[in-house]
Amino acid sequence: MRSSYPELIVLKMPLFRSNRFLALLLLAMLTTVAVMAGYPERFEFSEQLIPGENYHIEVQSDQMIGGKSSVRWIDESEKQAMECQFSTQVAHPYCLLQVYFASEPNIGKDLSIFQDMLIDIDYQGPGQELRLYFRNFGATYSKLEDFDSLKYSMVDIPIAELNQPIVVKMDEIKVANWWVLERHLPRPDRYVDIDNVIAMGIELKSSVDGTVERLRINQLTLRGTYISREQLYLYIIIGWAFILVSGVMVVLIERFRDKTTAIQKLTHETFELKQSSQLDQLTEVLNRRGVLNFFSRYQQQDKYSKIYSLLLFDVDHFKQINDQYGHSDGDRVLQQLAKKLKAMIRNQDGFGRWGGEEFILLCPGTNLEQALKVAEKIRLMISEHNFELEPSKQVTVSIGISINSLSTPIEVAIERADKNLYSAKANGRNRVHY
Ligand SMILES: Nc1nc2c(ncn2[C@@H]2O[C@H](COP(=O)(O)OP(=O)(O)OP(=O)(O)O)[C@@H](O)[C@H]2O)c(=O)[nH]1
Prior knowledge:
The chain starts with a helix and ends with a strand. The radius of gyration is 53 Å and the shape is rod-shaped. By secondary structure, the chain is an alpha+beta fold. It has 3 domains: 80 residues; 180 residues, Galactose-binding lectin (Jelly Rolls), CATH 2.60.120; 146 residues, 2-Layer Sandwich (Alpha-Beta Plaits), CATH 3.30.70. Bound molecules: guanosine-5'-triphosphate. Guanosine-5'-triphosphate (GTP) binds next to strand 13, helix 7 and helix 8.
Protein backbone atom coordinates (compact mmCIF):
# COMPACT_ATOMS: atom_id res chain seq x y z
CA MET A 1 0.00 0.00 0.00
CA ARG A 2 2.80 2.40 0.81
CA SER A 3 4.08 2.35 -2.75
CA SER A 4 1.03 4.38 -3.87
CA TYR A 5 2.12 7.24 -1.62
CA PRO A 6 3.87 9.38 -4.30
CA GLU A 7 0.83 9.06 -6.62
CA LEU A 8 -1.41 10.28 -3.82
CA ILE A 9 0.69 13.42 -3.46
CA VAL A 10 0.56 14.11 -7.19
CA LEU A 11 -3.24 13.82 -7.30
CA LYS A 12 -3.72 16.12 -4.36
CA MET A 13 -1.38 18.74 -5.83
CA PRO A 14 -2.98 21.91 -7.28
CA LEU A 15 -2.43 22.56 -10.99
CA PHE A 16 0.09 25.31 -10.31
CA ARG A 17 1.70 25.43 -6.92
CA SER A 18 3.43 28.64 -7.85
CA ASN A 19 1.08 31.59 -7.46
CA ARG A 20 3.53 33.60 -9.51
CA PHE A 21 2.52 31.69 -12.62
CA LEU A 22 -1.18 32.33 -11.99
CA ALA A 23 -0.37 36.02 -11.49
CA LEU A 24 1.51 36.01 -14.80
CA LEU A 25 -1.47 34.37 -16.51
CA LEU A 26 -3.82 37.02 -15.12
CA LEU A 27 -1.45 39.78 -16.15
CA ALA A 28 -1.21 38.33 -19.67
CA MET A 29 -5.02 38.19 -19.92
CA LEU A 30 -5.41 41.79 -18.77
CA THR A 31 -2.66 42.92 -21.14
CA THR A 32 -4.33 41.11 -24.05
CA VAL A 33 -7.70 42.70 -23.31
CA ALA A 34 -6.15 46.14 -22.82
CA VAL A 35 -4.09 45.90 -26.02
CA MET A 36 -7.05 44.74 -28.10
CA ALA A 37 -9.46 47.27 -26.62
CA GLY A 38 -7.00 50.13 -27.05
CA TYR A 39 -5.84 49.14 -30.55
CA PRO A 40 -6.88 52.22 -32.58
CA GLU A 41 -5.50 54.75 -30.09
CA ARG A 42 -2.26 52.98 -29.41
CA PHE A 43 -1.30 51.51 -32.75
CA GLU A 44 -2.81 53.78 -35.38
CA PHE A 45 -1.89 57.32 -36.44
CA SER A 46 -3.28 59.65 -39.06
CA GLU A 47 -2.86 63.05 -40.62
CA GLN A 48 -5.76 64.98 -42.09
CA LEU A 49 -4.70 67.00 -45.15
CA ILE A 50 -8.12 68.37 -46.16
CA PRO A 51 -9.69 70.23 -44.49
CA GLY A 52 -6.46 71.54 -43.03
CA GLU A 53 -4.08 74.43 -42.88
CA ASN A 54 -0.72 72.70 -42.50
CA TYR A 55 0.10 72.72 -46.20
CA HIS A 56 -0.36 75.01 -49.12
CA ILE A 57 -3.36 73.93 -51.24
CA GLU A 58 -3.84 75.31 -54.73
CA VAL A 59 -5.80 74.77 -57.94
CA GLN A 60 -4.22 74.72 -61.40
CA SER A 61 -5.33 74.08 -64.96
CA ASP A 62 -3.68 73.28 -68.29
CA GLN A 63 -3.14 77.03 -68.75
CA MET A 64 0.31 76.20 -67.23
CA ILE A 65 1.14 74.38 -70.48
CA GLY A 66 -0.66 76.76 -72.86
CA GLY A 67 -4.21 75.35 -72.57
CA LYS A 68 -7.40 77.32 -72.00
CA SER A 69 -9.24 75.28 -69.37
CA SER A 70 -10.18 77.40 -66.38
CA VAL A 71 -10.32 76.49 -62.72
CA ARG A 72 -11.55 78.39 -59.64
CA TRP A 73 -12.20 77.89 -55.98
CA ILE A 74 -15.86 77.65 -55.15
CA ASP A 75 -14.95 78.27 -51.54
CA GLU A 76 -11.88 80.47 -51.48
CA SER A 77 -11.55 80.41 -47.70
CA GLU A 78 -11.89 76.67 -47.00
CA LYS A 79 -10.14 75.53 -50.19
CA GLN A 80 -12.14 72.31 -50.41
CA ALA A 81 -14.30 72.87 -53.49
CA MET A 82 -13.29 73.77 -57.07
CA GLU A 83 -14.91 74.14 -60.45
CA CYS A 84 -13.23 73.36 -63.74
CA GLN A 85 -14.34 74.31 -67.25
CA PHE A 86 -12.47 72.33 -69.89
CA SER A 87 -11.18 73.67 -73.19
CA THR A 88 -9.65 71.33 -75.75
CA GLN A 89 -6.91 73.78 -76.70
CA VAL A 90 -4.24 71.22 -75.72
CA ALA A 91 -4.12 67.47 -76.31
CA HIS A 92 -4.73 66.55 -72.66
CA PRO A 93 -6.77 69.20 -70.89
CA TYR A 94 -6.77 69.03 -67.10
CA CYS A 95 -7.51 70.75 -63.81
CA LEU A 96 -5.79 70.03 -60.50
CA LEU A 97 -6.37 70.46 -56.80
CA GLN A 98 -2.90 70.16 -55.34
CA VAL A 99 -1.50 69.88 -51.80
CA TYR A 100 2.04 71.19 -51.73
CA PHE A 101 4.32 69.62 -49.07
CA ALA A 102 7.77 70.92 -49.97
CA SER A 103 9.69 73.01 -47.49
CA GLU A 104 12.59 73.13 -49.99
CA PRO A 105 12.29 72.28 -53.71
CA ASN A 106 13.85 68.86 -53.04
CA ILE A 107 12.48 68.13 -49.55
CA GLY A 108 8.93 66.83 -49.39
CA LYS A 109 6.90 64.54 -47.17
CA ASP A 110 7.44 60.84 -46.54
CA LEU A 111 4.11 59.18 -47.34
CA SER A 112 5.55 55.65 -47.30
CA ILE A 113 4.90 55.48 -43.53
CA PHE A 114 1.14 55.53 -44.21
CA GLN A 115 -0.90 52.46 -45.15
CA ASP A 116 -3.87 54.12 -46.83
CA MET A 117 -5.91 57.27 -47.44
CA LEU A 118 -9.47 57.95 -46.41
CA ILE A 119 -11.12 59.99 -49.16
CA ASP A 120 -14.56 61.59 -49.08
CA ILE A 121 -15.38 63.48 -52.30
CA ASP A 122 -18.56 64.93 -53.81
CA TYR A 123 -18.31 65.12 -57.61
CA GLN A 124 -20.56 66.75 -60.19
CA GLY A 125 -19.97 66.37 -63.89
CA PRO A 126 -19.95 63.87 -66.76
CA GLY A 127 -16.50 62.37 -65.96
CA GLN A 128 -15.95 58.62 -65.40
CA GLU A 129 -12.74 58.77 -63.34
CA LEU A 130 -10.58 61.12 -61.38
CA ARG A 131 -6.93 60.67 -60.64
CA LEU A 132 -5.03 60.77 -57.38
CA TYR A 133 -1.39 61.61 -58.09
CA PHE A 134 1.91 62.00 -56.24
CA ARG A 135 5.06 63.84 -57.34
CA ASN A 136 8.18 62.54 -55.68
CA PHE A 137 11.67 64.02 -55.67
CA GLY A 138 14.37 61.39 -56.13
CA ALA A 139 18.06 62.26 -56.27
CA THR A 140 18.70 59.84 -59.15
CA TYR A 141 15.96 61.04 -61.47
CA SER A 142 14.82 64.54 -60.35
CA LYS A 143 16.30 67.93 -61.09
CA LEU A 144 15.87 71.00 -58.97
CA GLU A 145 13.50 73.62 -60.44
CA ASP A 146 12.08 71.02 -62.88
CA PHE A 147 8.65 70.01 -61.63
CA ASP A 148 8.21 67.54 -64.49
CA SER A 149 11.24 65.56 -63.26
CA LEU A 150 9.36 64.63 -60.05
CA LYS A 151 8.25 61.01 -60.37
CA TYR A 152 4.60 60.79 -61.28
CA SER A 153 2.75 58.01 -59.45
CA MET A 154 -1.01 57.70 -59.47
CA VAL A 155 -4.19 55.76 -58.94
CA ASP A 156 -7.38 56.28 -60.96
CA ILE A 157 -10.64 56.20 -59.02
CA PRO A 158 -13.98 55.48 -60.74
CA ILE A 159 -16.46 58.29 -60.06
CA ALA A 160 -19.13 55.66 -59.35
CA GLU A 161 -17.31 54.69 -56.16
CA LEU A 162 -17.40 58.19 -54.76
CA ASN A 163 -20.98 58.14 -53.51
CA GLN A 164 -19.48 57.20 -50.14
CA PRO A 165 -16.09 57.68 -48.43
CA ILE A 166 -13.48 55.27 -49.80
CA VAL A 167 -10.15 53.92 -48.62
CA VAL A 168 -7.30 53.88 -51.12
CA LYS A 169 -4.35 51.73 -50.11
CA MET A 170 -0.84 53.01 -50.79
CA ASP A 171 -0.17 49.66 -52.49
CA GLU A 172 -2.58 50.66 -55.26
CA ILE A 173 -0.35 53.52 -56.38
CA LYS A 174 1.58 52.87 -59.63
CA VAL A 175 4.11 54.88 -61.59
CA ALA A 176 2.58 56.46 -64.70
CA ASN A 177 3.84 54.64 -67.76
CA TRP A 178 4.18 57.74 -69.88
CA TRP A 179 6.41 59.35 -67.24
CA VAL A 180 8.79 56.36 -67.26
CA LEU A 181 8.79 56.07 -71.05
CA GLU A 182 9.56 59.75 -71.56
CA ARG A 183 12.70 59.39 -69.42
CA HIS A 184 14.26 56.02 -70.33
CA LEU A 185 14.95 55.38 -66.67
CA PRO A 186 16.91 52.37 -65.37
CA ARG A 187 14.75 49.66 -63.78
CA PRO A 188 15.40 50.62 -60.14
CA ASP A 189 13.88 54.05 -60.84
CA ARG A 190 10.73 52.64 -62.43
CA TYR A 191 9.08 51.69 -59.15
CA VAL A 192 6.80 53.78 -56.99
CA ASP A 193 8.54 56.30 -54.73
CA ILE A 194 6.47 58.15 -52.16
CA ASP A 195 9.10 58.76 -49.50
CA ASN A 196 9.79 62.35 -50.54
CA VAL A 197 6.55 63.66 -52.04
CA ILE A 198 6.72 67.28 -53.05
CA ALA A 199 3.04 67.50 -54.02
CA MET A 200 -0.04 65.34 -54.29
CA GLY A 201 -3.45 66.11 -55.65
CA ILE A 202 -6.56 65.25 -57.55
CA GLU A 203 -6.62 65.63 -61.31
CA LEU A 204 -9.72 66.00 -63.45
CA LYS A 205 -9.54 65.31 -67.19
CA SER A 206 -11.93 65.76 -70.10
CA SER A 207 -11.61 65.80 -73.85
CA VAL A 208 -15.00 67.47 -74.40
CA ASP A 209 -14.83 71.19 -74.92
CA GLY A 210 -16.85 73.30 -72.45
CA THR A 211 -17.43 70.47 -69.96
CA VAL A 212 -17.85 71.73 -66.42
CA GLU A 213 -16.91 69.55 -63.46
CA ARG A 214 -17.24 70.35 -59.79
CA LEU A 215 -15.37 68.75 -56.96
CA ARG A 216 -15.68 69.06 -53.23
CA ILE A 217 -13.22 67.26 -50.97
CA ASN A 218 -14.95 66.71 -47.65
CA GLN A 219 -12.01 64.80 -46.27
CA LEU A 220 -8.58 63.57 -47.31
CA THR A 221 -6.75 61.80 -44.50
CA LEU A 222 -3.52 59.78 -44.52
CA ARG A 223 -3.65 56.80 -42.15
CA GLY A 224 -0.94 54.53 -40.78
CA THR A 225 -0.36 51.87 -38.16
CA TYR A 226 2.72 51.27 -36.06
CA ILE A 227 1.76 47.61 -36.13
CA SER A 228 -1.01 46.10 -38.18
CA ARG A 229 -3.93 44.30 -36.59
CA GLU A 230 -2.78 41.04 -38.20
CA GLN A 231 0.73 41.46 -36.77
CA LEU A 232 -0.72 42.32 -33.37
CA TYR A 233 -2.91 39.18 -33.34
CA LEU A 234 0.08 37.13 -34.43
CA TYR A 235 2.21 38.51 -31.58
CA ILE A 236 -0.61 37.89 -29.10
CA ILE A 237 -0.97 34.29 -30.33
CA ILE A 238 2.81 33.76 -30.14
CA GLY A 239 2.83 35.28 -26.63
CA TRP A 240 0.01 33.01 -25.46
CA ALA A 241 1.58 29.95 -27.04
CA PHE A 242 4.80 30.79 -25.18
CA ILE A 243 2.94 31.26 -21.88
CA LEU A 244 0.97 28.03 -22.31
CA VAL A 245 4.02 25.99 -23.26
CA SER A 246 5.94 27.39 -20.27
CA GLY A 247 2.89 26.68 -18.09
CA VAL A 248 2.82 23.05 -19.18
CA MET A 249 6.55 22.82 -18.57
CA VAL A 250 6.22 24.37 -15.10
CA VAL A 251 3.47 21.84 -14.23
CA LEU A 252 5.55 18.94 -15.54
CA ILE A 253 8.68 20.10 -13.73
CA GLU A 254 6.76 20.65 -10.47
CA ARG A 255 5.15 17.22 -10.73
CA PHE A 256 8.42 15.55 -11.55
CA ARG A 257 10.08 17.32 -8.62
CA ASP A 258 7.26 16.33 -6.26
CA LYS A 259 7.36 12.76 -7.42
CA THR A 260 11.11 12.62 -6.93
CA THR A 261 10.82 14.23 -3.49
CA ALA A 262 8.07 11.78 -2.50
CA ILE A 263 10.14 8.83 -3.68
CA GLN A 264 13.21 10.15 -1.86
CA LYS A 265 11.13 10.65 1.28
CA LEU A 266 9.71 7.18 1.01
CA THR A 267 13.15 5.66 0.44
CA HIS A 268 14.50 7.62 3.38
CA GLU A 269 11.58 6.55 5.59
CA THR A 270 12.01 2.93 4.57
CA PHE A 271 15.71 3.20 5.33
CA GLU A 272 15.00 4.81 8.72
CA LEU A 273 12.42 2.17 9.49
CA LYS A 274 14.82 -0.59 8.59
CA GLN A 275 17.54 1.03 10.66
CA SER A 276 15.28 1.58 13.65
CA SER A 277 14.07 -2.03 13.56
CA GLN A 278 17.68 -3.05 14.02
CA LEU A 279 18.44 -0.63 16.82
CA ASP A 280 17.96 -1.03 20.53
CA GLN A 281 15.51 1.59 21.74
CA LEU A 282 17.22 2.28 25.05
CA THR A 283 20.88 2.39 24.09
CA GLU A 284 20.62 3.15 20.35
CA VAL A 285 23.22 0.53 19.49
CA LEU A 286 22.38 -2.55 17.37
CA ASN A 287 19.81 -4.90 18.86
CA ARG A 288 19.95 -8.66 18.55
CA ARG A 289 18.51 -8.56 15.04
CA GLY A 290 21.01 -5.83 14.04
CA VAL A 291 23.93 -7.87 15.35
CA LEU A 292 22.80 -10.99 13.47
CA ASN A 293 22.36 -8.92 10.34
CA PHE A 294 25.84 -7.44 10.73
CA PHE A 295 27.27 -10.92 11.20
CA SER A 296 25.61 -12.41 8.11
CA ARG A 297 26.78 -9.46 5.98
CA TYR A 298 30.27 -9.89 7.35
CA GLN A 299 30.28 -13.60 6.62
CA GLN A 300 29.03 -13.07 3.07
CA GLN A 301 31.16 -10.11 2.10
CA ASP A 302 34.49 -10.36 3.93
CA LYS A 303 36.93 -12.13 1.62
CA TYR A 304 40.12 -11.39 3.55
CA SER A 305 39.74 -12.00 7.28
CA LYS A 306 39.95 -15.68 8.08
CA ILE A 307 39.00 -15.38 11.72
CA TYR A 308 36.85 -13.23 13.95
CA SER A 309 36.73 -12.78 17.68
CA LEU A 310 33.57 -12.39 19.67
CA LEU A 311 33.44 -10.58 23.00
CA LEU A 312 30.41 -11.11 25.17
CA PHE A 313 30.27 -8.91 28.23
CA ASP A 314 27.87 -8.51 31.05
CA VAL A 315 27.53 -5.83 33.74
CA ASP A 316 28.41 -7.27 37.12
CA HIS A 317 25.71 -7.34 39.77
CA PHE A 318 23.43 -5.20 37.71
CA LYS A 319 20.45 -6.36 39.71
CA GLN A 320 22.00 -4.63 42.73
CA ILE A 321 22.26 -1.37 40.77
CA ASN A 322 18.60 -1.57 39.87
CA ASP A 323 17.67 -2.43 43.40
CA GLN A 324 19.81 0.27 45.01
CA TYR A 325 19.33 3.18 42.59
CA GLY A 326 16.14 2.32 40.80
CA HIS A 327 15.35 1.06 37.32
CA SER A 328 15.79 4.41 35.58
CA ASP A 329 19.30 4.90 36.97
CA GLY A 330 19.97 1.33 35.82
CA ASP A 331 18.80 2.38 32.36
CA ARG A 332 21.12 5.36 32.44
CA VAL A 333 24.09 3.13 33.29
CA LEU A 334 23.28 0.93 30.30
CA GLN A 335 22.95 3.98 28.04
CA GLN A 336 26.25 5.52 29.16
CA LEU A 337 28.04 2.22 28.91
CA ALA A 338 26.76 1.69 25.35
CA LYS A 339 27.74 5.21 24.39
CA LYS A 340 31.30 4.82 25.72
CA LEU A 341 31.77 1.50 23.96
CA LYS A 342 30.35 2.75 20.71
CA ALA A 343 32.84 5.61 20.75
CA MET A 344 35.85 3.36 21.18
CA ILE A 345 35.22 0.49 18.75
CA ARG A 346 36.62 0.37 15.20
CA ASN A 347 34.44 1.05 12.16
CA GLN A 348 34.65 -2.52 10.97
CA ASP A 349 33.52 -3.96 14.31
CA GLY A 350 29.90 -4.83 15.09
CA PHE A 351 28.65 -3.82 18.49
CA GLY A 352 25.21 -4.31 20.02
CA ARG A 353 23.08 -5.14 23.00
CA TRP A 354 22.49 -8.87 23.15
CA GLY A 355 19.81 -8.54 25.82
CA GLY A 356 19.33 -7.17 29.37
CA GLU A 357 22.72 -6.00 30.67
CA GLU A 358 24.60 -8.13 28.18
CA PHE A 359 26.54 -6.66 25.19
CA ILE A 360 28.32 -8.22 22.26
CA LEU A 361 31.30 -7.07 20.19
CA LEU A 362 32.22 -8.77 16.96
CA CYS A 363 35.72 -7.99 15.67
CA PRO A 364 36.49 -9.29 12.15
CA GLY A 365 40.08 -10.41 11.47
CA THR A 366 41.06 -10.16 15.14
CA ASN A 367 43.19 -12.82 16.81
CA LEU A 368 43.28 -13.72 20.47
CA GLU A 369 46.08 -11.36 21.35
CA GLN A 370 44.29 -8.39 19.80
CA ALA A 371 40.94 -9.44 21.27
CA LEU A 372 42.43 -9.63 24.74
CA LYS A 373 43.82 -6.13 24.35
CA VAL A 374 40.43 -4.78 23.34
CA ALA A 375 38.59 -6.63 26.10
CA GLU A 376 41.03 -5.45 28.74
CA LYS A 377 40.74 -1.90 27.50
CA ILE A 378 36.96 -2.09 27.77
CA ARG A 379 37.03 -3.67 31.17
CA LEU A 380 39.40 -1.02 32.47
CA MET A 381 37.54 1.87 30.93
CA ILE A 382 34.20 0.76 32.43
CA SER A 383 35.67 0.15 35.85
CA GLU A 384 37.23 3.62 35.85
CA HIS A 385 34.25 5.48 34.47
CA ASN A 386 32.16 7.62 36.79
CA PHE A 387 28.53 6.64 36.12
CA GLU A 388 27.29 9.47 38.37
CA LEU A 389 25.41 7.24 40.75
CA GLU A 390 24.54 8.77 44.13
CA PRO A 391 26.09 7.48 46.35
CA SER A 392 28.87 6.66 43.91
CA LYS A 393 29.46 3.09 42.91
CA GLN A 394 31.99 1.34 40.73
CA VAL A 395 30.42 -0.42 37.77
CA THR A 396 32.35 -3.33 36.24
CA VAL A 397 31.92 -5.81 33.46
CA SER A 398 32.98 -9.39 32.95
CA ILE A 399 34.03 -10.43 29.44
CA GLY A 400 34.14 -13.79 27.72
CA ILE A 401 36.06 -14.15 24.44
CA SER A 402 35.87 -16.70 21.63
CA ILE A 403 38.16 -16.84 18.59
CA ASN A 404 36.46 -18.31 15.55
CA SER A 405 37.11 -19.11 11.91
CA LEU A 406 35.15 -17.11 9.37
CA SER A 407 32.76 -20.00 8.75
CA THR A 408 31.87 -20.54 12.42
CA PRO A 409 28.19 -19.78 12.96
CA ILE A 410 27.53 -16.97 15.39
CA GLU A 411 25.49 -19.19 17.68
CA VAL A 412 28.54 -21.39 18.18
CA ALA A 413 30.82 -18.39 18.70
CA ILE A 414 28.40 -16.95 21.28
CA GLU A 415 28.11 -20.23 23.07
CA ARG A 416 31.93 -20.41 23.40
CA ALA A 417 32.17 -16.81 24.58
CA ASP A 418 29.30 -17.35 27.01
CA LYS A 419 31.15 -20.24 28.63
CA ASN A 420 34.16 -17.99 29.13
CA LEU A 421 31.93 -15.22 30.45
CA TYR A 422 30.43 -17.63 32.95
CA SER A 423 33.94 -18.57 33.97
CA ALA A 424 34.88 -14.88 34.42
CA LYS A 425 31.81 -14.36 36.62
CA ALA A 426 32.56 -17.47 38.60
CA ASN A 427 36.13 -16.35 39.16
CA GLY A 428 35.24 -13.05 40.78
CA ARG A 429 33.88 -10.82 37.97
CA ASN A 430 35.55 -7.68 36.50
CA ARG A 431 37.79 -9.90 34.47
CA VAL A 432 38.36 -11.22 30.97
CA HIS A 433 38.33 -14.95 30.18
CA TYR A 434 39.01 -16.81 26.91
N1 LIG B 1 17.38 -0.99 34.38
C1 LIG B 1 17.32 -2.07 33.58
N2 LIG B 1 17.53 -3.27 34.08
C2 LIG B 1 17.49 -4.36 33.29
C3 LIG B 1 17.27 -4.22 31.92
N3 LIG B 1 17.32 -5.48 31.38
C4 LIG B 1 17.57 -6.35 32.38
N4 LIG B 1 17.69 -5.68 33.55
C5 LIG B 1 17.95 -6.23 34.84
O1 LIG B 1 19.27 -6.72 34.94
C6 LIG B 1 19.32 -7.63 35.98
C7 LIG B 1 20.15 -8.80 35.65
O2 LIG B 1 20.30 -9.52 36.80
P1 LIG B 1 21.02 -10.91 36.90
O3 LIG B 1 20.73 -11.68 35.67
O4 LIG B 1 20.69 -11.51 38.17
O5 LIG B 1 22.52 -10.59 36.89
P2 LIG B 1 23.35 -9.61 37.71
O6 LIG B 1 22.58 -8.96 38.79
O7 LIG B 1 23.94 -8.60 36.76
O8 LIG B 1 24.43 -10.44 38.29
P3 LIG B 1 25.64 -11.10 37.53
O9 LIG B 1 25.35 -11.05 36.08
O10 LIG B 1 25.72 -12.45 38.04
O11 LIG B 1 26.83 -10.27 37.89
C8 LIG B 1 17.84 -8.01 36.28
O12 LIG B 1 17.50 -7.43 37.51
C9 LIG B 1 17.07 -7.39 35.16
O13 LIG B 1 15.81 -6.91 35.60
C10 LIG B 1 17.03 -2.96 31.42
O14 LIG B 1 16.80 -2.72 30.23
N5 LIG B 1 17.07 -1.91 32.29
